Amino acid sequence: MSLLEVNNLRVHGPARELVHGISFSVEPGERLGLVGESGSGKSLTAMSTVGLLAHGLRAEGSVLLGGHQVIGQSDRALVPLRGPVAAVVFQDPRSALDPLMRLGDQLAHPIRRRAKREGRSMSGPQLRAEQLRWLDRVSIADPERILTSWPHEVSGGQRQRIAIAMALACGPRLLIADEPTTALDVTTQAEVLDLLDTLARDEGLALLFISHDLPVVARITDRVIVMQHGRAVEEGPVRQVFTRPRDTYTQGLVAAAQQLEAAVRGMQ
Amino acid sequence: MKKTTLWIGAILVGINVVIALLTLVWLPYDPTAMSGGRLAAPSWAHWAGTDRLGRDYFTQVMIGARIALTVGVGAALLGGLIGTTLGVLAAFAQRGFDDALAATLDILIAFPTLLLAMLVVAASDGASLGTAILAIGIAMSAIIARLVRILTKRVLAQDYITAARCSGLGWGRIVLVHVLPNIAPTVLVAIALQFGLAVIAEASLSYLGLGAPPPNASWGQLLQSAQSTVFNAPIGVIAPGLALMALVLGINFLADGLRDLLDPERGAA
Amino acid sequence: MSLISLKDVQFSYGDTPILHGVSLALEQGESLGILGESGSGKSTILRLMLGLTRPDTGVVEADGSVLDTRSRARMQAHRRFVQPVFQDPYTSLDPRMKVRRILTEPHAALDLPGDAEAEAARVLEAGGLPADSLDRYPRAFSGGQRQRIAIARALIARPRVLLADEPVSALDLATKVRVIELLTELSRELTLVLVSHDIAIVAALCPRMIVLQQGRVVEAGKTAAILRAPQHPYTQRLLASLQHMPMESP
Fold first, then answer.
1. Can the keyword DNA repair be found in this entry's annotation (chain A) (predicted)?
2. Backbone angles phi, psi at A140, to 5 degrees
3. Do C247 and A243 touch (CB under 8 A)?
4. Could you tell me if B34 and B7 are in contact, meaning their C-beta atoms sit under 8 angstroms apart?
5. In which band, very low, low, confident or very high, does the pLDDT at B265 lie, cut at 50, 70 and 90?
6. Does residue A70 register a pLDDT over 70?
7. Tell me: the pLDDT tens digits for C98-137?
8. Which of A38, A187, A238 sits opposite C238 (nearest CB)?
9. Do chains B and A touch (3 or more CB pairs under 8 A)?
10. pLDDT at B213 over 90
11. Do the Cβ atoms of C93 and B160 come within 8 Å?
């Protein structure tokens, strides 16, 4: 059974339809990229799969997440799916973390929830050990200090690492990452991509990775769906789509990305 | 839906404006003359009955509309002008002055308008329309200034302001052509909402005897004098009360409607 | 003679040091890329070059003389000499002004020669925008078109230097490539200073570059030479961090 199975998903905005019937599936351990420019509907598609559409938007069709129907479910019914089945990492790690809560306390939430779900009790020292283990998993130096820090006291890259740790501490089988490296500096972006790559491999995670950046998608995913104006225009293995695109829109995107890269390569 | 509120607001305010203008040239009765029995009930001759001295009550309520609008418009103009000027200055000011001004405005906002009005009345030679306008206008200016300061700072942080500086514009022109037009919609809506509050404040002041003196009686004063006869002649309280409510409601509807209309994202291209 | 030069410039924002003794020179026809990540001080260098702020110590020279930001006449001349383009096309145009007014505003304020209307038409064409754009408001345009309007506004003064702060990083890929093409075309006539975190854009537009790290120039020289053989460890790390498109498998 697929981990995520999306069938003819449509997203309606207040005035018009924004995603016009998209279907795809993600198998356990698979890495799928959703590529498109702003307004292509890639983020709406991803958020629909966990029932996290903004107010005023409505999804239609079928989304089976870990075998459970997501479309038309109340938020309460979806809570048990978010975390154990799928967790989300957002573009802006600043708004994804509560600015008024110490990082250690924020990280403790998913750890405790998971322990409760698995019927384990968690003592103070155990909790602390778990917190430190997760910070170590996301390669955070000086974890003791980070635990007692506030979100604004750490760098953007560290915030994103902590957001990833919080998502993974839920024990999900699917990680949905919405432009997770777009707000980061080039060097930090490379580190976070390496981290996601390693973690996904070690944990056997499936990945739904949303980005407008073709080289980044090429780095992290195996298969890619190219979206334009709310439609999937091309789908296939990432190497094939990015080297021999069939759709004219994809061809334009790939040519533009290659043109940018040629400027650097041409000089090296 | 939004258009409806705008229209209801415009009609309610419009009726008040027409009546207020009408009182300048025509009144049903001489407001100071006895034209019927004392505390007469409403009739065709006296739509809102008469007061304790047998004067036509509807005439007095009509005059009240003029007083309310005069004070409201006067206070809005005064408060808008002082508030916008102070707010823009504060946004440009160096840290020290800005902080001092911000603190002053906060104190002024916390200061009850009624108390301020009493001080103004005490400082001038007695209550008048002018003192009411001054007191309410000053109180209003503090609220507008605080809003204008924040809005101006937000606009000043935009790249088009830096571009204007690089286009050779001085700060004065930048304020005139870039800052004011961009903060105007929000400030106008705020002033319109304050206008409604000013009408209520004026009614409260005159209820306490701090407003315009008779015969230019305002609604607040009518309410105050009709208070003792509320059980014999409830119309004495109902008529000015309804008028006050209709005007303030109309102003608030109008302000809400304006807010939607002036929203730059949805406005006409 | 350099078009613009910074000589041992120090700058602090309050108690926070931003630039530690930065020196650089912009030569005629040799567009300069300033590569740096967030907090490197690259935007501060731009503000200094624009005369929007003064260095704590050190000197900014432009067009052969020291830039005295307190002299109105000197600054008016400087405004005709350099013009900026900003990162965010959504905040760089006044939403309440029609394009005509946006373009002619500098013409009047800088007392430029020629007919304002004709000049507006000229820069509109140079920016690659349709002539009927003049009577529309910024909200009628996409991000890429807005950036073209901003570029057109900068061109009205016929500046010799165009200072661009991340001019394409907010744009979609296809739009980005087209705006880079526009800038390439413009750089034949004028000299660009391009501030960016993106090596590809610097490589595409600038024959010379400097690498800025935490307020210090760590590497400077010909872009081709730096990309081929980066000397400083930081530059090496930046280059190693680039993500690449997959190559056609043989």
1. no
2. -95, 125
3. yes
4. no
5. low
6. yes
7. 999 999 999 999 989 999 999 999 999 999 999 899 999 9
8. A187
9. no
10. no
11. yes
Q: Which domains are present in chain B?
A: 2-24+55-262 (1.10.3720.10)
A154: contact with C, CB 8 A cutoff: no
Interface of C with A in 155-174 (CB under 8 A): 172-174
- Can you give the CATH number for the domain in which C137 is found? 3.40.50.300
The residue type found at B9 is: G
Q: Could you report the per-residue pLDDT of C168-204, keeping only the tens digit for each?
A: 988 888 889 999 999 999 999 999 999 999 899 999 9
Q: Over the stretch C70-108, which tens digit does the pLDDT of each residue have?
A: 999 999 999 999 999 999 988 999 999 999 999 999 999
The answer to whether A193 contacts C38, with C-beta atoms less than 8 Å apart, is no
Q: Is the pLDDT of residue B267 over 50?
A: no
The residue behind tokens 């709406």 is: A44
State the pLDDT at residue C196: 92
Q: Is residue C211 part of a domain?
A: yes
| Chain A adjacent subunits, 3+ CB pairs under 8 A | C
B160 touches chain C (CB under 8 A): yes
Specify the pTM.
0.85
Superfamily of domain A4-267: P-loop containing nucleotide triphosphate hydrolases (3.40.50.300)
**Type of residue at C130:** P
From chain C, pick out residues whose CB is under 8 angstroms from the CB of A155. Answer: none
B264 contact C CB<8A:
yes
Q: Cβ separation of C199 and A264 shorter than 8 Å?
A: yes
Mean pLDDT of chain C: 92
C247 touches chain A (CB under 8 A): yes
Taking the CA of residue A4 and the nearest CA in chain C, the distance in Å comes to: 27
Q: How many domains does chain C have?
A: 1
